[in-house]
Protein backbone atom coordinates (compact mmCIF):
# COMPACT_ATOMS: atom_id res chain seq x y z
CA UNK A 1 0.00 0.00 0.00
CA UNK A 2 2.75 2.47 0.92
CA UNK A 3 4.81 1.38 -2.09
CA UNK A 4 2.12 2.50 -4.52
CA UNK A 5 1.68 5.86 -2.79
CA UNK A 6 5.44 6.45 -2.69
CA UNK A 7 5.71 5.58 -6.39
CA UNK A 8 2.86 7.96 -7.24
CA UNK A 9 4.52 10.77 -5.30
CA UNK A 10 7.86 10.21 -7.05
CA UNK A 11 6.28 10.04 -10.51
CA UNK A 12 4.37 13.26 -9.79
CA UNK A 13 7.51 15.08 -8.60
CA UNK A 14 10.89 13.47 -9.29
CA UNK A 15 12.68 15.84 -6.91
CA UNK A 16 10.53 15.04 -3.89
CA UNK A 17 12.44 14.60 -0.66
CA UNK A 18 12.25 11.49 1.47
CA UNK A 19 11.25 13.49 4.53
CA UNK A 20 8.32 15.02 2.60
CA UNK A 21 7.13 11.54 1.61
CA UNK A 22 7.57 10.31 5.17
CA UNK A 23 5.57 13.24 6.55
CA UNK A 24 2.79 12.82 3.97
CA UNK A 25 2.42 9.09 4.62
CA UNK A 26 3.21 9.28 8.34
CA UNK A 27 6.00 6.67 8.18
CA UNK A 28 9.71 6.86 9.01
CA UNK A 29 12.32 8.21 6.60
CA UNK A 30 14.18 4.90 6.88
CA UNK A 31 11.07 3.02 5.71
CA UNK A 32 10.64 5.46 2.82
CA UNK A 33 14.27 4.96 1.84
CA UNK A 34 13.83 1.18 1.92
CA UNK A 35 10.70 1.33 -0.24
CA UNK A 36 12.34 3.66 -2.76
CA UNK A 37 15.60 1.76 -3.17
CA UNK A 38 14.70 -1.90 -2.56
CA UNK A 39 11.08 -2.29 -3.57
CA UNK A 40 10.74 0.35 -6.30
CA UNK A 41 14.33 0.27 -7.60
CA UNK A 42 14.80 4.03 -7.74
CA UNK A 43 18.09 5.78 -7.23
CA UNK A 44 18.85 9.44 -6.90
CA UNK A 45 20.92 10.92 -9.74
CA UNK A 46 22.06 14.42 -10.52
CA UNK A 47 21.92 16.05 -13.91
CA UNK A 48 24.81 15.87 -16.33
CA UNK A 49 26.11 19.37 -17.09
CA UNK A 50 25.95 20.44 -20.75
CA UNK A 51 27.36 23.89 -21.65
CA UNK A 52 24.55 25.30 -23.82
CA UNK A 53 21.34 24.27 -25.47
CA UNK A 54 21.17 25.77 -28.97
CA UNK A 55 18.72 24.89 -31.70
CA UNK A 56 19.70 24.68 -35.35
CA UNK A 57 17.99 28.04 -35.94
CA UNK A 58 19.97 29.67 -33.13
CA UNK A 59 23.23 28.38 -34.59
CA UNK A 60 22.29 29.69 -38.05
CA UNK A 61 21.35 33.08 -36.59
CA UNK A 62 24.69 33.33 -34.77
CA UNK A 63 26.54 32.51 -37.99
CA UNK A 64 24.58 35.18 -39.90
CA UNK A 65 25.31 37.84 -37.27
CA UNK A 66 29.02 36.97 -37.20
CA UNK A 67 29.19 37.18 -40.99
CA UNK A 68 27.50 40.60 -40.94
CA UNK A 69 29.93 41.85 -38.29
CA UNK A 70 32.89 40.62 -40.32
CA UNK A 71 31.56 42.38 -43.42
CA UNK A 72 31.15 45.64 -41.46
CA UNK A 73 34.72 45.34 -40.17
CA UNK A 74 35.99 44.72 -43.72
CA UNK A 75 34.11 47.81 -44.94
CA UNK A 76 34.69 50.25 -42.04
CA UNK A 77 37.87 48.86 -40.45
CA UNK A 78 39.11 50.60 -37.30
CA UNK A 79 36.13 52.96 -37.18
CA UNK A 80 33.82 49.98 -36.73
CA UNK A 81 35.97 48.59 -33.89
CA UNK A 82 36.02 51.95 -32.10
CA UNK A 83 32.23 52.12 -32.26
CA UNK A 84 31.97 48.75 -30.54
CA UNK A 85 34.43 49.61 -27.80
CA UNK A 86 33.01 53.08 -27.13
CA UNK A 87 29.38 52.10 -27.65
CA UNK A 88 27.04 52.40 -24.70
CA UNK A 89 25.30 49.07 -25.22
CA UNK A 90 26.29 46.26 -22.95
CA UNK A 91 25.06 42.71 -22.67
CA UNK A 92 24.90 41.28 -19.20
CA UNK A 93 23.85 37.71 -18.62
CA UNK A 94 22.54 36.76 -15.21
CA UNK A 95 22.78 33.07 -14.44
CA UNK A 96 21.66 31.63 -11.14
CA UNK A 97 22.86 28.02 -11.30
CA UNK A 98 21.03 25.18 -9.66
CA UNK A 99 23.21 23.26 -7.24
CA UNK A 100 24.00 19.61 -7.80
CA UNK A 101 21.89 18.69 -4.78
CA UNK A 102 18.92 20.67 -6.11
CA UNK A 103 19.14 18.94 -9.50
CA UNK A 104 19.02 15.43 -8.04
CA UNK A 105 15.96 13.38 -8.85
CA UNK A 106 14.77 9.81 -8.64
CA UNK A 107 15.24 7.58 -11.67
CA UNK A 108 15.09 3.87 -12.35
CA UNK A 109 18.39 2.13 -13.04
CA UNK A 110 17.75 1.96 -16.81
CA UNK A 111 16.49 5.53 -17.18
CA UNK A 112 18.73 7.96 -19.05
CA UNK A 113 20.53 10.57 -16.96
CA UNK A 114 18.84 13.99 -16.96
CA UNK A 115 20.66 16.90 -18.59
CA UNK A 116 21.13 20.31 -17.02
CA UNK A 117 22.19 23.15 -19.30
CA UNK A 118 24.51 25.85 -18.05
CA UNK A 119 22.73 28.36 -20.22
CA UNK A 120 19.48 27.95 -22.08
CA UNK A 121 19.67 30.49 -24.86
What's the number of extended β-strand segments?
4
- Overall CATH architecture of the largest domain: Orthogonal Bundle
Percent in helix = 40-55%
Q: Helix and strand string, N-terminal first?
A: HHHEEHHHEE
**Radius of gyration, Cα only, in angstroms?**
24 Å
Which strand order does the major sheet show? 1-3
Spans with pLDDT under 50 lasting ≥5 residues?
none
CATH topology of the largest domain: Arc Repressor Mutant, subunit A
The main pleated sheet reads as:
2 strands, antiparallel
Q: Find the structural class using helix and strand composition.
A: alpha+beta
Distance between the termini: 44 Å
Describe the global form: rod-shaped
Query: Beta-sheet strand percentage?
Result: 15-25%
Total of domains: 2
SS summary, helix count: 6
CATH class of the largest domain: Mainly Alpha
Put the structure in a nutshell:
This is Histone-lysine n-methyltransferase setmar-like protein. The radius of gyration is 24 Å and the shape is rod-shaped.
Structural notes for this entry:
It is a single chain. The chain has helices spanning 2-12, 18-25, 29-39, 56-76, 78-86, 100-103; strands spanning 42-45, 48-53, 105-108, 115-120. The chain contains 6 helices and 4 strands. With 121 residues, it is an alpha+beta fold. The chain has a two-stranded antiparallel ribbon. It folds into 2 domains: 1-47 and 105-121, Arc Repressor Mutant, subunit A; 57-85. Helices cover 53% and strands 17% of the residues. It is rod-shaped. α1 (2-12) packs across α3 (29-39) and α2 (18-25) packs across α3.
Amino acid sequence: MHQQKVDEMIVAKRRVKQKDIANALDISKERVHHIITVHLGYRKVSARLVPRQLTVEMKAQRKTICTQLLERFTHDGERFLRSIITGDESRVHHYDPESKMQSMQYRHKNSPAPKKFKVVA
